[in-house]
Structures are given as C-alpha cells and as structure tokens.
Sequence to fold (398 residues):
Amino acid sequence: MHFDAIGRVPGDPILGLMEAYAQDPNPRKFDLGVGVYKDAQGLTPIPQSVKLAEQRLVDRQTTKTYIGGHGESAFGKAIVELVLGADSPLITEQRAGATQTPGGTGALRLSADFIAQCLPGRGVWLSNPTWPIHETIFAAAGVKVSHYPYVGSDNRLDVEAMLAALNEAPKGDVVLLHACCHNPTGFDLSHDDWRRVLDVVRSRNLVPLIDFAYQGFGDGLEQDAWSTRLFAAALPEVLITSSCSKNFGLYRDRTGALIVCAKTADKLVDIRSQLANIARNLWSTPPDHGAAVVATILGDPELKSLWADEVETMRLRIAQLRSGLVEALEPHGLRERFAHIGVQRGMFSYTGLTPEQVKQLRDHHSVYMVNSGRANVAGIDATRLDLLAEAIAEVCRP
Ligand code: LMR
Fold:
C-alpha cells in the first residue's frame, strides 16, 4: 500500500512529557517539563486582564472575517512598542514593523523561511544548548545550522567561547540570540556581555535574530527588553521573534510576532511584502483571538497596568521558587552544587542533572523534566519543595 514504507519518528521531547505526566497516577508527581507557568494551586491561570479583554471582545467584536497577512495593525503597533519601547526612534522613522504569527514558534518558522528565501546561502548560528525546536525549524526550512558554545560541561555560561565561535562565523550569517531567560539553561548574558556580542555581530556583519519569548519573566518587562533595544538602536537590521504565550498566558491561542527592523522605511515595505508572501504559504492569515486580546490590553491603560502587575506576580513567584528550591536542598548538603538555580532567570533551570538522573527521577519519584536536565521551575509546587529536594538528593547520591 502507499503508506507501507512510512516509519515512526520519536515524539516531541518536550510535549511528550505532558502526556507522560498526565498518565502517571502518582498523586505526588511533579510536572517540571513543558514551559508553562503554574500558580500556587498548580493551575496555569488565565490572567484577569485577559479575561476582561476577552469579555470586551465578546461584547464588541462585530466580525470574524479574515485579518490581513500581517495581522491586526493595532496588535502590530502595540507589540512593537512593548518590545522596542514606545519612544523608540525606529517607530517614528517607520523602520520597524510586526507581522502577527501563530505564537513565537510561528515567528521563528517565518524568519527561517525568510532567511532561506531572501538571504539564500546564509547559515544560522544557535547556542549550544538551545531550545530543541530551534534546530528542527531551521533544518526544516533548509537553513544550515551551526552552533556556538554557550554553557560548558561544568554547567557555567562560557561567554569567551561564545564570542570566539561567533568571531569565526562566516560574514553575513544569522545569529540567534535569546533576549532573556535563555531556554533551556536560564543563564543570561550580563549587559557587558551583550555589548561584547554586539561588537562581534557588527564586526562579522552578522544578522541578529533575537528570540524574545519570555518578556517579563526575568528581571521585569522593561529590563528584559534591554538587550533587544540595545541591538535595535545600534544596528540597521534586526529580526525579533516575540511570543505572548507566557507573559499573557495565551499559550493555546498561538499569539506572537516577527518584528523586522530595517535600514529605511522603504526597505521595510519591501521586506514586509516578502513576509506576507511567505506567511500566505504557511498559514495564510494569522489566528486573531489572542492578538485581539493583547491589542485590547495594551491599548487600555487600566488593563495594561493590571496585566503588568500580573506578569510581575508570576515573575516574583518563579524567583521565590528558585530560592526556595536552593534552600530546600541545603539540608542534603546540596546548596552549593545547585546554587546556580538561584542565579538563573526565567522559567527554566539547567540543573546539571544527567540524563540518567533525570530518568531515575521520572521512574522512581514521578518527577518529570527534559532529558537534558532542564527543569521548568515555574511548574514547582511550593508546598512540596522538601519532597522534590529529597528526590533530587536521592538520585545525586553516589
Ligand atoms: C518549552 O520550551 O517548554 C516551551 O517553549 C514550550 C514548547 O513549545 O516547547
């Protein structure tokens, strides 16, 4: 038959954990796999600001007709301001524009196809390690993938090795940088490090593609945008993928944007014509609901302030979970060994646990995390930190 030769591929390494966790009957299980935020009740809540905006949409929305290839202009404007800052000269000079995409992942795929079609022959440089889907998206688009070191085998950020590798990258290649809350490690560059990366990007004439999926989860909404704004102000051309999945809690509504910063307003129009064309072949026009919610929130000072408070609450809870876990590991003599969990930023911690230890945690303690040792700190139940610490201590025993 026609399909006989089709084999099976392994399931997604991150999404597969959701299923395995759901099927585990152990009531003491821990879900530290996929990057979703959970509150004190263990729920991934819909923010109040989102609920209010949705109600407004139900009451006032008059049509479900298609939106254009770039999405709703109100969303595009709002997201550019959120990312670049409302006072960015790029906005007044009309050199920055957003294309609405199905989530940050959609923005990455759009940028990958854009690179393949409009910058043929350019490779992309990804951090080692990076979010595994970065690897597959660029490969699927036919873009050559190379890696720059980011975290060494000692589980420490290695900026010197990163800069050395980027210094060897072919001129004109694309370098993907994580704006904040690096996925999977949680190790972020300092301001000084960012300036040094900028120097290399400039001297090698690289195209920066900044993946900005966790705005507000590191040091704050404005603070997390610092690196992106540094690059956008210093360089004539920057690509930015922005996600509203985490900070607006809109995971399943697939809401994101590819923001292009171009040298001139006229060139931006050229590039956007290409993006609309590529998007038409990928998903035609983007889904509307999540973007309409975001535009409603960011366009209303009261809703925006409520939302910013809700993001801050999530950020602070994650920070507390980080220090709480380090403290809970203290009685086991492991504070020093896991001190990096308190230094890392965002949802994820590269714990340094080996794949074997991760397997033991899953098999014997129903603790689910990615094989690489990445734990979603935002999924920890704060009332059971001691239990989690005990499980970790047990698999760390020689
Ligand atoms: C993650 O890394 O867990 C998140 O970005 C969710 C995903 O799509 O993988």
Observations:
- The chain has 15 helices and eleven strands.
- The two ends are 53 Å apart (CA to CA).
